[in-house]
Recover the amino acids of this structure.
């Protein structure tokens, strides 16, 4: 985390004119850095997550059921109004933390009574997105369209709370049987 903070500090300071910098310019830079530091500490700084350079388009990752395996890419937390997008950072931390608490799903895919299929990956991610939405509702808008679509699809069949609960336990088959029973 310190490396990214230092890089952010360099970026802010690089934007200042080396000659003719005023005390006001330095004060503004210091204010931005203090705010960024506070925002980071209040969001992902409270987790055990590692800050890593992840592949393009990947904001964070974690292994199911593996405490301490969550990581994020600070580049995905860049804010429009500040150095850090606090809502996104809170959501990302909740999402990845949820994955570390999830059990492996009990099936790779299930077929509902309607004939529609739900893949384990979609179920896992929908549960994490539900947890993310509780903590930082605005962060959902910044998910990729693919993640937004899979979340909408899975939650169309069950309440967000139920998706979160059963996804945490890895109970994809139970989710399918409940949905099929409701449709009957």
């Amino acid at each position: 985390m310190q490396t990214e903070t230092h890089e952010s500090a360099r970026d802010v300071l690089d934007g200042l004119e080396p000659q003719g910098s005023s005390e006001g310019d330095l004060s503004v830079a210091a204010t931005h850095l203090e705010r960024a530091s506070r925002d980071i500490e209040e969001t992902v700084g409270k987790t055990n997550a590692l800050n890593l350079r992840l592949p393009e388009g990947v904001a964070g990752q974690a292994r199911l059921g593996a405490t301490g395996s969550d990581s994020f890419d600070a580049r995905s937390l860049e804010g429009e109004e500040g150095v850090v997008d606090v809502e996104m950072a809170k959501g990302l931390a909740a999402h990845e933390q949820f994955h570390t608490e999830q059990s492996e799903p009990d099936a790779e895919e299930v077929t509902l009574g309607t004939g529609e299929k739900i893949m384990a990956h979609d179920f896992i991610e929908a549960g994490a997105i539900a947890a993310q939405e509780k903590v930082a509702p605005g962060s959902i808008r910044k998910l990729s369209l693919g993640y937004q679509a899979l979340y909408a699809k899975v939650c169309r069949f069950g309440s967000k709370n139920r998706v979160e609960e059963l996804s945490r336990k890895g109970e994809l088959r139970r989710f399918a049987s409940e949905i099929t029973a409701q449709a009957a």
Remarks:
- The first strand starts at residue 50 and ends at 51.
- The radius of gyration is 20 Å.
- The first helix runs from residue 2 to 14.
- The helical segments are 2-14, 23-42, 86-101, 120-135, 145-157, 160-169, 172-183.
